[in-house]
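Worked Example 4.2. Read the sequence first, then its structure tokens.
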Amino acid sequence: MTITTGAPPPTHRTPLVLARGLLTGGVAGTSLAALVVGGIAENVPLFVTGLVLPALYGLLFFLAGAPRRAREAAVMPRTALAMIESLEAVGGESGDIPVRFDLTVAPDDGPAYRVKITQDINLVDLSDYRPRGVVVVQYPPDSPWRARIVKRPTPEWEDRADAARIDSAPGTAEVAAPPESCAFGFVLLLGLLLGAAVVVLLFRADLSDRVDTAQPPPGAPPSVSATSSTTVSSSASGTVSLGPGQSFLDTGELDRAVGTLTGGEDTHRALTVVVRERLLSVVFSPAGAQTPGFDTRALPYGRFPALVEEATSTLGVRSPRTWQITADRLTGSLVIRVVVTGPEGTASLEANGEGEVVRRAPAR
């Protein structure tokens, strides 16, 4: 049995939606390029523009979508009984944890269908949900794949759920959200590249001046330490490269490299810190700018090897090829991201400023 729910509205195909995708990508690309170029060129207005632009765009996007959200809120959701085919906790250790449900939904006015959803369930209430158990769900009439379990149904629906017996719907009756068009992803990427290119082209003279200033004088050898590392530093950024056979996961190597870049000064606050196997890159906060920087000494460098070990061994990347650690405060609080890539795909995890893992994204 195959469920048909009517033709869904075109997704990411109308000219308006594609134009919105191009504009969104352009804003993202412009903002990121403005942050990087403004930091390197020490152009405070450009850097501030990179921070303010996405906030303004987000506000406009929110206001433009208000009428649509009001129309959706005015549509009464449908209520139905559903049987739990299976459930699986997919994360979390306390409080509300995400649980993946496979449900057979049995509407009163239509054929039963299967749907897979993920919903947060309090750990205390998890025992109330069992395979073959009947629950009450609600879903928008035109989007049955957006079903949500009603945690506190009305007494009438609760009595119906206690007395109901629902047969399993076949796998062919499963419904899901319509796939997004590749065209939307293409225009989003195109807008991202165009936005970044515009900023780089407009401020290429400032970048050239900073690069020329950062170059060592002719004939001067690069600074090489006893551990075969190369350091290039300016007021805007700095890099440290290790030689073959070395790694920034070695004990004390990161602390030594960061101290080399900052010279032990307390005034060197960073916008981003990026660590690879043998390359450390730091973008410093422009002097006098009110930017979301952080003290490079505040990073839990001692936790970095353990974070990389967890990312390369527990997230589904069995043959890791590269890994990268990025630390920034662009979202307000200090976030440490570890991204690892391999034949199985890309996996990542996020940690807080103490090096405690708060989010994992397995390879896909």
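Now turn to a second chain, presented in exactly the same format:
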Amino acid sequence: MPRRRQPTARQERLGIELRKLREAAGLKAREAAALVGSDSAQMSQMESGIAGVSEERVRILAAHYSCGDQELIEALVAMATDRARGWWENYRGLLPTPFLDLAELEHHSTHRLDVEFLHVPGLFQTEDYARAVFSYRVPELPDSEIELRVSHRMERKAVITNPAPTPYEVVIHEAALRIRVGKRAAARDQLARILELSEADHITVRVIPFELDGFAGATNAMMYVGGAVPKLDTAVRDAPHGAGFIDSEAQLGTFRTLFRMVEAVSLEPTRSRSFIHQLAKEL
């Protein structure tokens, strides 16, 4: 298969998982390469996502790595053979690659957990809210790029609004709901949008009020995206130059625990909707 100049995060993740399996089996790259009639350089390229890997090679390697997790194998095969062009590809060359990688990750997600303290989650944002967020940065973006980013963010919402939506649980701190990112009318529309989405069966919204005593978890904003199998879950954290994807099983376990801790102290969904409704009335 031809080499890729810039593999996507999904292609890199496939390589990472193949490397994890090889290392767990105690094999060197050259030993694994010999199993599929290749060499160590090409094996390195496959494990970094630079070179593609066929279904046959995935299955041969999994067998020699003594991987008995059939669900994981099938998920890796699906990643290796997926040639579909997603809507986000329309933005390639127009927006930074992390925007595209995040959209692709969400497209393939099986569930989603978010915790936000200062901003309304991206999947909930209205156009006015998103435009205000992208406008408030240094150096300033030209209007054309701001509109591209807003358009991209609006298209990302498909994962929770399409006919087969992704289950979505989100915890939002009162601060994020009260900060007027845009004007008063835009803030009111944003709260109305959250209330509208919270009525969906696949969406659970919880709020952490300012009055909560003993809450020291305000640094634990997070996005957790479920993969085809738990080993392919991904945590996403903001980084200076785009989103950072985390795939370590130990760290993923920590993020799951953190989410449940934050969820446990938040208002239950019905009270949360009443809380948001009251905030909207105050605007």
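Notes for the reader: Strands lie at 112-116, 168-173, 203-208, 222-225, 234-239, 242-246. The mean pLDDT is 95.
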